[in-house]
Every structure is written in structure tokens, then in C-alpha cells.
Amino acid sequence: MATDGSGTQDRVEDEARQVVAFVEEMTGLRSRWNGTVRVVDAATAALLSPVPFLAKKEWGCGITLLETTTGDGRWRSLLHEAFHSVSVGLTQESYNQFAPWEEAIVESLQRLYRPALLRSLSVDADESRIAASEAAWRFNRAVDALGRIAAERPEVPAREFLEQMLRTPLPDRPALAFEWGRQGASFDRFKRVYAATSGLLR
Ligand SMILES: [Zn+2]
Q1: Segment 16-66, tens digit of pLDDT
Q2: How far is the CA of 55 from the centre of ligand 1 (A)?
Q3: Distance 186 CA to ligand 1 centre (A)
Q4: Which residues, including other chains, have CB under 8 Å from residue 109's CB and lie 6 or more apart?
Q5: 152 alpha carbon to ligand 1 midpoint, in Å?
Q6: How far is the CA of 79 from the centre of ligand 1 (A)?
Q7: How far is the CA of 2 from the centre of ligand 1 (A)?
Q8: 8 Cα–ligand 1 center, Å
Q9: By the 8 A CB rule, do 72 and 114 touch?
């Protein structure tokens, strides 16, 4: 249900199209997004999901956005959802089992690419507000854990690691990250970090 007429909805759909095009170009992956964004109020959002959200990609492949997310924070939400929409092997079943491996990768890419996205769309957004909404995000522990795993091979740009993970079917990502570590300079050290952090990705 749109809460403030179709104007906001049309505008956000148009923005989502630009964000999805940006993500497709950056990753070379094709989006499954169906072209619609549903803007809902808090009561409708509570009916849709037991877990509070600012935005979510529906299994039917539309995007649902909480009406209060239509300020500057929408850019991070749209970019995050756009990365979900190209993520390989993302099904409800694989998500239920490996959600942190999906969320940490998508969110890390969102944070990495957002400045370039905003520049390319000539958007002057309030970064401090956007960062504030990130500080309370429920998968931050998984984001930190993934960052520590990626940092074990400093010779590989974070972007390259994250995109390789995004292109790998979700259920195969934990094993791939482990194999990726084997190619680094110190696999013994990597194994210790992986053991200490991968529990945070469960
Ligand atoms: Zn997400």
C-alpha cells in the first residue's frame, strides 16, 4: 500500500532503475528485480515481516521500502537491495541457511560502491545520516567477520574478493572463502582467523 500517493513510488522506482543499472554494469551480473518498488508504512511493514527492516527484496523480486527510508537513507537501501538482486544462487532455502554470508557480502559491497554510485548520479546525500543507519544494522557482526577474513590477503582488493563471492552460489561461499585463503601467503594464520570469525557468519 502506498502511503503518500504514487509520486514517491514512481520517483523511487526510477531511482531503483538507475541503481540496478549501476550494479549490473559494475558486476557484469544480471538483476532479477522485477521493476517495482512498494513504499509501505510501519504498520504494513510489521505485517510483512517479523524482523524490522528499512528495505527488503521480496522473493517475488520486487523491492519493499519503508516510507521513512525515502530520505537520503534510501540510497544505501536501494544499493543493498540491488546487490541482492544480482547475487548468484540466492533462494529462500539457501538464504535461510546462509543469511549472514549473503548479507555481509551485499552490505560490504554497498558500503564500498556507494560513494561511486552517488557521484555517478550526481546525488548530494547526507553521509552522516546514512552512516548512522548502518551503525545499528543487524548483520554488522557478520560484516566485520567477513572484513577480517578478506584482510588476510591484503594483496587482493576487497572489491575483487567480494565480487567473487557474489558470483558464487550462496551455499558454496563458506567453502570458497576457505579455499581462497589457501592461496594466500600464510594459510596457517588464515585458518586461525577463519576459525575465529566464521562462527559470526552463522
Ligand atoms: Zn539484505
Answers
A1: 999 999 999 999 999 999 999 999 988 888 888 878 888 888 777 889 988
A2: 8
A3: 32
A4: 83, 159, 162, 163, 166
A5: 25
A6: 10
A7: 22
A8: 22
A9: no
Full 3-state SS string of the chain: CCCCCHHHHHHHHHHHHHHHHHHHHHHCCCCCCCCCEEEECHHHHHHHCCCCCCEEECCCCCEEEEHHHHCCCHHHHHHHHHHHHHCCCCCHHHHHHHHHHHHHHHHHHHHHHHHHHHHHCCCCCCHHHHHHHHHCCCCHHHHHHHHHHHHCCCCCCHHHHHHHHHCCCHHHHHHHHHHHHHCCCCHHHHHHHHHHHHHHHC
Contacting residues for 116 by C-beta, under 8 A, at least 6 apart: none
CA 85 – ligand 1 centroid, Å = 10
| Per-residue pLDDT, 1 | 43
Edge-first strand listing for the sheet containing 37-40: 37-40, 63-66, 55-57
Q: What's the pLDDT tens digit per position in 107-116?
A: 999 999 999 9
Angle between helices 158-166 and 92-120 (to 10 degrees): 140
Which sequence spans correspond to the domains of the chain?
7-201
